[in-house]
Write a structure and sequence with these properties.
single chain, alpha+beta, two-stranded antiparallel sheet, about 30% helix, globular, disordered C terminus
Length: about 260
């Protein structure tokens, strides 16, 4: 009888171990999103998603309604992920010199310095932040690329302080003082060229986790914690096995 009881207890212990060990393995990486708001009288709009898998980030940035041309060429709009500050987009109180334009440096206390350049190709480091050749071109464009995530950007995303800023205004929409001013970042350019036009804080979205194994044809669920489901299912099986053990024990005792 003792051998039978010990054998019946094995499935209970095994199922419990399976549920607990399976839960961490099903953890997923994170996705971040933002709808970009207008700054400095911009008429543009934009959305961005940043899907993080390990040390890789896949970014899809869609921008439209921006100034189309600059000096008889497609307008080069540089854009970045900023971090290390408040994680906010600046309001009009950030305009300290009274020219009715929030410059990049005036906005920095709200959104911080550049941690990643959202370049259309090539270098994504902060050093490429003013490289017009890798900026988005014209009134509407998409940046869709994968790159290695640096530690500063990862920290800003996880802290909720990562802010996306798209630069480049139509000079004609600025105040006379703003039209006459030079860029605070590149004095050879007008203030409009480098000032923020769109801004949005990246917020963590629901994690997407697969249900079922690879190539099973089972649809993926969004926002479903399959680790918790596995644990819950395992505990349910443990309870069932424990019940079977109790019934078997009572039967043996009765015998």
């Amino acid at each position: 009888m003792n051998k039978t009881l010990r054998f019946m207890a094995v499935p209970t212990l095994a199922l419990g171990a399976l549920a607990l060990s399976g839960s961490p393995a099903m953890a997923a990486d994170q996705s971040y999103q933002s709808t970009l708001g207008q700054i400095n009288g911009s008429s543009g709009s934009g959305t961005i998603t940043v899907d993080v898998t390990g040390n890789q980030a896949h970014v899809v940035l869609n921008v439209s309604g921006m100034p189309a041309t600059f000096m008889d060429a497609p307008y080069p709009h540089v854009q970045h992920i900023h971090g290390g500050a408040k994680g906010l987009c600046p309001d009009l109180s950030a305009d300290k010199d009274g020219d009715q334009v929030i410059s990049t440096t005036e906005g920095a206390p709200s959104y911080g310095g550049i941690v990643t350049t959202l370049s259309t190709s090539g270098d994504t480091s902060p050093a490429a932040g003013l490289d017009l050749k890798v900026g988005g071109q014209g009134a509407a464009y998409t940046v869709d690329r994968t790159f290695e995530l640096n530690a500063e950007t990862k920290a800003a995303l996880e802290a909720g302080t990562a802010v996306v800023v798209v630069h480049g205004l139509d000079p004609a929409t600025l105040s006379p003082a703003g039209q006459a001013a030079k860029s605070d970042l590149a004095p050879t350019l007008p203030l409009a060229a480098t000032s923020p036009a769109l801004c949005g804080t990246l917020k963590a979205g629901q994690m997407t986790m697969p249900v079922g194994g690879a190539d099973t044809g089972i649809a993926h669920e969004t926002g479903t914690d399959t680790g918790a489901l596995a644990l819950g299912g395992g505990l349910a099986l443990v309870a069932l096995a424990g019940g079977a053990y109790a019934v078997r024990r009572r039967s043996l005792n009765a015998a």
